[in-house]
Amino acid sequence: MRYRIEYTKETKGHFQALSARQRSILLDAVEVQLASQPAVQTRNRKPMRPDALATWELRVGNLRVYYDVIEEAPPTVVVRAVGVKEREQVRIGGRQVGDEVLQDDEDPGRD
User: Fold this and answer.
1) Along the 111 residues of the chain, how does pLDDT read in single tens digits?
2) Which residues are CB-neighbours of 59 under 8 A, at least 6 positions away?
3) Residue 29 belongs to a domain
4) Number of domains present in the structure of the chain
5) Is residue 109 part of a domain?
6) Rounded to whole angstroms, how far apart are CA atoms 38 and 26?
7) Of 54, 62, 83, 91, which has fewest CB within 10 angstroms of its CB?
8) Residue 110 lies inside a defined structural domain of this protein
9) Among 48, 93, 44, 85, which Cα is nearest to 68's?
């Protein structure tokens, strides 16, 4: 089954904070990795903790895509945010975002 990809209005602003190369890499990755089976965990796709920015995270090198999956017809992936991970910090739209927003499971020892 093929999923439709939608970007929120805020996400379009997040893309503007990226370089042209980063935008191209992310758009290609979203199309390849999220158009089918976006809710299947892989090495690069991880579920987020409850109350996070989105329910899923796609990792493409140091780039991040935060998205939700809607299974009802038509099945849709809603991209909520895109950012760049720099060491332990994520920048979305050029602004640093804290752990209270991005609660991923990257550190298995953290609860």
Assistant:
1) 899 999 999 998 999 999 999 999 999 999 999 999 999 999 999 999 877 789 999 999 999 999 999 999 899 999 999 999 988 888 898 787 865 455 444 443 333
2) 44, 45, 46, 85
3) yes
4) 1
5) no
6) 15
7) 62
8) no
9) 48
